[in-house]
Amino acid sequence: MFTPVVELRNPQVVILAAGIGTRLGLSSPKPLTALADGQTIMQRQLRHLAAAFPQAQVMVVIGHKPDLIMRAVPHVLFAYNHRFERTNTSKSLLLALRLSVPGGVLWLNGDVVFECGLLERIHPMIKADESFVCVNTAAIGDEEVTYTLDRDGYILRLAKAIIGGLGEAVGINYVASSDKTLLIEHLERCADQDYFERGIEFAIETAGMRVRALDISDFSVVEVDFPVDLERANSEVCKTIRRR
Question: For 243, what's the count of Cα atoms within 13 Å in the CB-facing half-sphere?
Fold first, then answer.
């Protein structure tokens, strides 16, 4: 279980890494995919998290080939989704939130490759303890979760294939301490194969939870689902290498 977090600058952090990742076509868990800089996706995530939130406690939700992930990153906490073959990210996030201590939780998908500066961008929102979803307004992919806003600028819809979507959710999110119980209740309502975004949308629709869309379009973020995504992620990683 998490230890209490004293400063909002160092939130509880969850990485969702239980999935099989069949679309990428690799035998190892997707978060252990090697990138062009020699790091795996998860090693890169953890390095960026340590730089931005040096005192944060990180929990990784595992399922598929858990021993490989546990050996690769032994210094974090682990929660095992024993139903990983039959469930999606809504149930992995539910497991992690149930294990968390009071306070907000920052979570990200285990297949997201992003720039370190993105985490600096979200500091003010975490300090304010306000729920948010990081979004990219520059493009909307066919397979991505998109969103719309209400008249006050909060998220209204959050799902795949929304007509008139304003951008795509990138898989990095935060639930405020005051919203966490509400989100847990609505993740419990989700079907086993629902993504966690359905739980957020449930909470917005039925309980009026207010969630900001935090625009991070000026940062490179790639969610690696297919081989073409991995190529794009490595292209962005190579740019970072050249800037060093």
Answer: 7
**Could you report the per-residue pLDDT of 155-167, keeping only the tens digit for each?**
999 998 788 888 9
Q: Which residues contact 239 (CB under 8 A, 6 or more apart)?
A: 220
Single-letter residue type at 235: S
Q: HEC string of 161-191?
A: CCCCCCCEEEEEEEECCCCHHHHHHHHHHCC
Q: How far is CA 160 from CA 126, 134, 141, 147, 201, in A?
A: 26, 15, 10, 8, 12
Q: What is the pLDDT of residues 134-156, one digit of tens each?
A: 999 987 766 688 999 999 999 99
Tokens representing residue 173 in the block: 């999110």
User: Which residues have CB under 8 Å from 116's CB, separation 6+?
Assistant: 47, 48, 51, 52
User: Hey, what are 5's tokens?
Assistant: 């977090």
Q: State pTM to two decimals.
A: 0.92
Separation of alpha carbons 18 and 60, rounded Å: 8
Question: What's the CA gap between 64 and 18, in Å, rounded?
Answer: 5
The two tokens of residue 233 are: 């992620």
d(CA 153, CA 151): 6
Report the distance separating Cα 76 and Cα 130, nearest Å. Answer: 25
